[in-house]
Amino acid sequence: MFITFEGIDGSGKTTQSKLLADCFAYHDVVLTREPGGTYFAEKIRKILLTSEIDRTAELLLLLSMRQEHMEKLILPSLQAGKIVICDRFIDSTIAYQGYGLGISLELIEKLHNLINIKYPDITFILDIDVKLALQRAQNKNKYEVMDLSFYNNVRKGFQTIAAKNRHRCHIIKETEKASSSQIHNTIINMVSIR
Ligand code: TYD
């Protein structure tokens, strides 16, 4: 099974990916992330998240990293019967590079067709108020200093992706009051009824 977590920075998806990965006592689980996941992609990640890069060049870089990640880690793990949990994947590219930075969604889709990606079986999109999320995010990367309108567009992008892909995407509403363990329970229930 291939499970991805998506959402804007500060939405709590990294915490939820880890909590879910710790739950599968009788399965081999691979917890991975994007940008990153392989030796090459983790090296490029540091540069990508801190440098100003032409947005199309950046898109190509993200796709190149994803291709490597698919071939070297995700597909072999799935073929070996493991559960793969990935913190961010294709929907982040559509939401950030497409809805956020304004790159054509058609171009993003065409490039993904070239690398022949496998879509996740389940995607959890953690949806949260932008101001609340940015209070939690710690300005660790270049996106986290972008303005509210950028993040509102990215958030709307994730909501649109969810509406278009109901067969795999589940929106999980994050509020100030909901604890990580309550959200985790909702996620676990969704995984187990599949
Ligand atoms: P993330 O790992 O969530 O950051 P952090 O280390 O702060 O928890 O993601 C890194 C950033 O990369 C995030 O701001 C979103 C961005 N990103 C894209 O813009 N496009 C993509 O395709 C991916 C995978 C990430």
From TrEMBL:
Gene3D superfamilies: P-loop containing nucleotide triphosphate hydrolases (3.40.50.300). Its EC number is 2.7.4.9. It catalyses: dTMP + ATP = dTDP + ADP. It is an enzyme of class 2 (transferase). It comes from the Bacteria. Keywords: ATP-binding, Kinase, Nucleotide biosynthesis, Nucleotide-binding, Transferase. The keyword Transferase applies. GO terms for molecular function: ATP binding; dTMP kinase activity. Pfam families: Thymidylate_kin. Residues 5-177 form the Thymidylate kinase-like domain. SUPFAM superfamilies: P-loop containing nucleoside triphosphate hydrolases. ATP binds at G7, I8, D9, G10, S11, G12, K13, T14. GO terms for cellular component: cytosol. One of its GO terms (biological process) is dTTP biosynthetic process. HAMAP family: Thymidylate_kinase. PANTHER family: THYMIDYLATE KINASE, UMP-CMP KINASE 2, MITOCHONDRIAL. Phosphorylation of dTMP to form dTDP in both de novo and salvage pathways of dTTP synthesis. NCBIfam families: DTMP_kinase. Belongs to the thymidylate kinase family. This is Thymidylate kinase. The lineage of its organism: Bacteria, Pseudomonadati, Pseudomonadota, Alphaproteobacteria, Rickettsiales. The gene is tmk.
